[in-house]
Predict the structure.
Amino acid sequence: MSEQSIAVSIKDLSVEFPIGKTILGKPTLLTAVGNVSLDVPSGSFFGLVGESGSGKTTLGRATLRAAPISKGSITFRDREGEQFELRHMSSKREKAFRRNAQLIFQDPYAALSPRMTVRDIIAEPLEVMKLTKSRAETDERVREIAAKCRLNVEHLRRFPHAFSGGQRQRISIARALVTNPSYIVADESVAALDVSIQADILNLLKSLQRDMGLTFLFISHDLSVVAHTCEMVAVMYLGSLVEIAPPRILFTEPLHPYTKALISAIPSLDPDHRQKAVKLSGEIPSPVNPPPGCKFHTRCPLATERCRAEAPQFRDYEGHKVACHLVEKGA
Ligand code: SF4
């Protein structure tokens, strides 16, 4: 893949949060994301999955500069092909970046102000960023993006309480897209919706991706959702990437024991599948005090002495990128 085709390039990224002080006065750090490198290709629908607490939301927010970059770098490429590092932006560049990179929230009920009309909710980013010169221009842009998100003119006069969950999520999507961004972080954007509505919203996001040339970082705890939507899937565990592969490979031949456990936990009507399910024991450890060696060793059924002492490299293997000492031995 050529360098020009990368929308977001993450190199050795760590995101740390101070959460108190030790007896000696040093800050205690929670490492939400540790030493992650990842390229999100332009125009792709890139999935990021893992359990709650795996760091996927923090990683997504770091790419929007909404979480601190403690170490490493994130390079962003805009629609015009300009590349810049998020930690070193001028205020003019930062304004352009805010327009170019947007977030779709998880909860369409909490994300919309109940006191604003749908028109005002969608128009707010244009007005805050001063992207239009007149109310007429704002209204025209709001109507245009609302129509793309399958909302009609009548909807714009109403308040959010008049809408179902799926319609509210379409309002959230319209608000994220009204500034004509190139990069969208969709954080659990269908998790709060009924299954039938999830498919409708996923189809809408895919058609918007094609029509508007968008790059999506699609964050989900639900592997069955990313299996049918994403062109590439990255799996996170305790702040680190453990495997990346296209879904057609990842879901048929997962290599990492954690990926295998997640995939085997996808509900199935096949009794054979249920018998083969890999059950993970215990909880995800605390990111304040992660285990040494492979971070997954406390729950991995295949862990060896080496796993407890040495962190595996994240490396290429048969069409995957994977971090496991035993991958050649068919872990
Ligand atoms: Fe399991 Fe060891 Fe592989 Fe980690 S490195 S996933 S503990 S086998």
